[in-house]
Amino acid sequence: MSALTSLRAAAKPAVADFDPLHWRRDFPILGQKVHGKPLIYLDNAATAQKPQSVIDAVAQFYSQSNSNVHRGVHALSERATAQYEAARAKVRDFLHAASTCEIVFTRGTTESLNLIAQSYGRSHLRAGDEIILSHLEHHSNIVPWQLLAEQLHLDIKVIPITDTGELLPGAYEHLFSPRTRLVALAHVSNALGTLNPVREMTAIAHRHHALVVLDGAQAVPHLPVDVQELDCDFYAFSGHKLFGPTGIGVLYGREALLAEMPPWQGGGDMIRTVRFSGSTWNELPYKFEAGTPHIAGAIGLGAAIEYLNAVGMDNIAHYDRELLGYGARELQRIQGLKLIGTAPHKAGVLSFVMQGVHPHDIGTIVDQEGVAIRTGHHCAMPVMERFGIPATARASLAFYNTRADLDALVAALGKVREVFR
């Protein structure tokens, strides 16, 4: 029985009986050894590993259906187009969007956010308008707005955070003024794992007639997302953090907003007519998908979503909370270790520092024990500055991780303490 057949035949486990080892077997990369030790992969916030069904879907496209989409009438092109658009429908259902017209394929969260800034922002914002960000943001949800602010002479306001890594209560609404036009927030912080109350924050923004952009890159792997329930105006995420291929991402936007936004990039497939006297644009969502898209990436993303539907996002969210709590308790037992980001509502991230040890040294030593974690500023320099540190070590979780993985991390950190005793 192939891995894909096994996946489709697998019964979805009850939340209380969730068995990560049942699913871990579907990820071939996790069976290897690193430096002679079993691989313990705890760098999922940077990129998640891929189940065999995703690998098979990409390989099958290239071996059986490879062709360009939308413009061909031959069998391979029609087959590729059908698979590509089927993937879009899977994304629509995964996010609970109203229509496939609201699902734009991009290269990732970064491109999605830049698209909003340069298409919506440049056409709708004016000098003196304000954008609200938070101190928790990834650089991809800071720099595009800074570039736009420089171009249009906008003002950026920032929600401060507490010592636990939460947005400062009450500070958010005080930042609004009659000139506030847009709020851009991380659903989940990549550096700290803080889960922001984005539904409530969106309601506040809408009361002030501001649009809301949500960076969902770190949220979609850990919890169910319903863009209609969140009531956000835009939502962005990356396929590679959702157990899919690299180089593919998604921008959800309300259909009415996307319809009035100008194209960001010009080229094939985003046009209806082209003449030297002027061009007209294709219908949604193709107006924003210039050139040959990442067809295999979209198909692989669709396969990843199909896989996650089999696992169950509610199961994943429940297990994530349990595993995160276990990891936090065990790490806090280590002498000289301090967790950075201790908000009560978190998802999938354990960031920490160790007294007298640079995070890069932590990462190097635990790697020798087969444990993969991330060290650095995590593309969140303002967060590091807020806590007065240059970097953290970050262990980030997925549903295929286990308590034994976290025990291995703790043991490896014991080696770090021995070296820097």
Give a quick set of tags describing it:
421 residues, alpha/beta, Aspartate Aminotransferase, domain 1, Aspartate Aminotransferase, domain 2, 2 domains, four-stranded antiparallel β-sheet, disordered N terminus
What order do the strands of the largest sheet run in, or round the barrel if closed? Answer: 4-10-9-8-7-5-6
Total number of beta strands: 17
CATH topology of the largest domain: Aspartate Aminotransferase, domain 2
The biggest beta sheet, please? 7 strands, mixed
Percentage of residues in strands: 15-25%
The total number of structural domains is 2
Structural class by SSE content:
alpha/beta
- According to CATH, what is the class of the largest domain? Alpha Beta
Q: What's the average pLDDT?
A: 95
Question: Which secondary structure elements does this structure contain, and how are they paired or packed?
Answer:
Layout: H1 3-9, H2 20-24, E1 33-34, E2 37-38, E3 40-41, H3 52-65, H4 75-95, E4 103-106, H5 109-124, E5 130-134, H6 143-152, E6 155-159, H7 171-174, E7 180-186, H8 198-207, E8 211-215, H9 227-230, E9 234-238, E10 249-253, H10 255-260, E11 271-275, E12 278-281, H11 295-311, H12 313-331, E13 337-339, E14 349-354, H13 359-368, E15 371-372, E16 374-376, H14 381-387, E17 392-396, H15 403-419
Parallel strand pairs: 3-15, 5-6, 5-7, 7-8, 8-9
Antiparallel strand pairs: 1-2, 4-10, 9-10, 11-12, 13-14, 14-17, 16-17
Description:
The protein is an alpha/beta fold. The chain has 2 domains: 3-50 and 313-416, Aspartate Aminotransferase, domain 1; 57-309, 3-Layer(aba) Sandwich (Aspartate Aminotransferase, domain 2), CATH 3.40.640. Helix content is 40%, strand content 17%. It has helices spanning 3-9, 20-24, 52-65, 75-95, 109-124, 143-152, 171-174, 198-207, 227-230, 255-260, 295-311, 313-331, 359-368, 381-387, 403-419, and strands at 33-34, 37-38, 40-41, 103-106, 130-134, 155-159, 180-186, 211-215, 234-238, 249-253, 271-275, 278-281, 337-339, 349-354, 371-372, 374-376, 392-396. It is built from 15 helices and 17 strands. Strand 7 (180-186), helix 8 (198-207) and strand 8 (211-215) form a beta-alpha-beta unit. The strands form 5 sheets. Strands 4-10-9-8-7-5-6 form a 7-stranded mixed beta sheet, sandwiched between helices. It has a 4-stranded antiparallel beta sheet with strand order 13-14-17-16, covered by helices on one side.
